[in-house]
Amino acid sequence: MLVYLTEFLERYHSGFNVFSYLTMRAILSALTALLLSFVVGPAMIRRLSAYQIGQTVRDDGPESHLPKAGTPTMGGALILVAITLSTLLWADLGNRFVWVVLAVLVAFGLIGFIDDYKKLVLRDSKGLNGRAKIFWQSLAALAAALVLYWTARDPVETSLIVPFFKNFALQLGVFYVAFSAFVVVATSNAVNLTDGLDGLAIMPTVLVGGALGVFAYATGNINFASYLQIPFINGVGEMLVVCAALVGSGLGFLWFNTYPAQVFMGDIGALALGAALGIIAVVVRQELVLAIMGGVFVVETVSVILQVAIYKRTGKRVFLMAPLHHHYELKGWAEPKVIVRFWIITFILVLVGLSTLKLR
Question: Whole-angstrom Cα distance, residue 188 to residue 279?
Answer without folding.
Answer: 10
